[in-house]
Amino acid sequence: MLRRYVAPLRGRVIKNAVIKTTGTLLEVVLPTILAFIVDEVTPTRDTGRIVFWGIFMAGCSIAAWFLNVAANHMASRTASEVVSNIRQDLFCRSLDLSARQLDEISVSSLESRLTSDTYVIHRFLSATLRMGIRSLLLFLGGVFFCFYLSWRLALVLVVLVIPLFFVIRFVFSRAIPKFRQVQIKVDDMVQVIRENIRGIKVSKALNKTQFEQERYSVVNEDVRQAEVAAIDLMALMSPLVNILLFGGLTVVLIYGAHLAGAGLVKTGTIIAFMSYFIQITNSLLGLNRMFNIYNRSVASTARITEVLDMPVDQSQAVPAAEASVLPSASPDVPEVIFRHVTFSYLGKQNDLEDISFALYPGRTLGIMGATGSGKSTIIRLLLRQYDVTSGEIQVRGVPLKEVPAAELKALFGIVFQNDFLFGDTVRANVRFGRDLDDDELMTALRHAQADDFLADKDGGLDFKLASKGVNLSGGQKQRLLLGRALAGGPDVLLLDDASSALDFKTEARLRGALRRHYETTTIIIAQRISSVRQADEILFLEKGRAIAQGDHDHLMAVCEPYREIAHMQLGRTSRTSADARQVP
After folding, report:
1. Cα–Cα distance between 51 and 64 in angstroms, integer?
2. Model confidence pLDDT, tens digit, residues 19-47
3. In the chain, N or C terminus with fewer CB closer than 10 Å?
């Protein structure tokens, strides 16, 4: 997966590698130049040569610094661009996933892949281009020049590098699981924080703040203990490495002095060798760090690739040869037909069973039933988020499976039970990317009964909403969402418990506005009898089955559960649906 995203930037990656390699090689050669100056130039007492080589060494240092800075800057840009493209494609693919695929992956996992996993890949790419090339060249160059300067002293290096490598691997191999445990504990802590921030009003209302503080204290302590365990283990790294490093340097000095006394090496060579020894040690630390970053990136890459390469859900696709053009609405053809529809989410137990109804243009269907009875499932099937298990759904006489997705979505205006508002202006939320002017927006908001409270907000349409509309009341949010659904002039309006937060007076005005200004076909899912009593037909569901079907008066006569709800909400002497239609 990474290869295909890096490929378009291959030229930049090669340029970055060349610059980084050049800068690193200039670093590697510096101790050798120093040894040459000490052993060969200084003894001549030629001031001109000493100054020349000193300036030359300083120039190499400055050039190495400049090239490394330039390469690091280029590496960051390259990694950012690659990950930006990955993140964009991942986001777009996530939006195209079918409902079943979303159920399989889960929304929280998609969020994690778009944020944490892409960050891990960014870190890997950036570290590879910056630290990976440098660490490898420092190690290879250091070993080469050590043998070039003195193969005898280089044998000391070989003897010490092996235990040094295993010490580093030992610590890192045990530290990685501990840091993973830290992340798990942090995830648990974040979950508690999210729950408390979202439910802070409930905690205060029930006087449970002390309980929640104690609950947070427990997870916070778990994080502390996990971090201490991981850091204590990592703390072993520096002392162990220093023992080997300084022990090795001691051996180099003692053995080097012996060789110098025998005339086998010079003083500059010993100085250079000590620099290379430290350089090789640091490069091993860098390579081990790269190894750990790589291990994490492999898992993150696999998670992202799973989404990017996930095939199109064929149950949601409409082959061009089978696609049908959706005809215009006709009073003689039902706008929506459900014919003996049965559906199961998991394929084990039916969530809907043998549902049938026909809804003609301009008419209203109300759907009621207990929580979990299948009301919202009917909407999901009509939107073709899922395909029916058996039976058939038609829109304007065309089987739903033959209607292209773009035409189907253009047909509906929808307000879901748990809908959302962006952290943006009212205008942007209601317009929702459509080509609508302010007059159209205000007309829709007026019909949705949102113009009165909007007039009290600073800026009107320019009033800035907080994320999820938390700076509005529940009723105000629902009215803005209704305005958004109405603004597009939909042929079919789907309202899933869309007025539950409205007071009865506002809801009555809303129903009147819909009757006067819109001739849409409407499906209303509600818990209130007042929301559906004026519907042309009401479908009452119980455990996925339609136990009664008809208008309000019919259900009052034949459906005991419906009648009980009506008596509780409206009183024993409720008016007939004909009387109710007189309400303005």
Report:
1. 20
2. 999 999 998 999 888 888 888 888 888 88
3. C
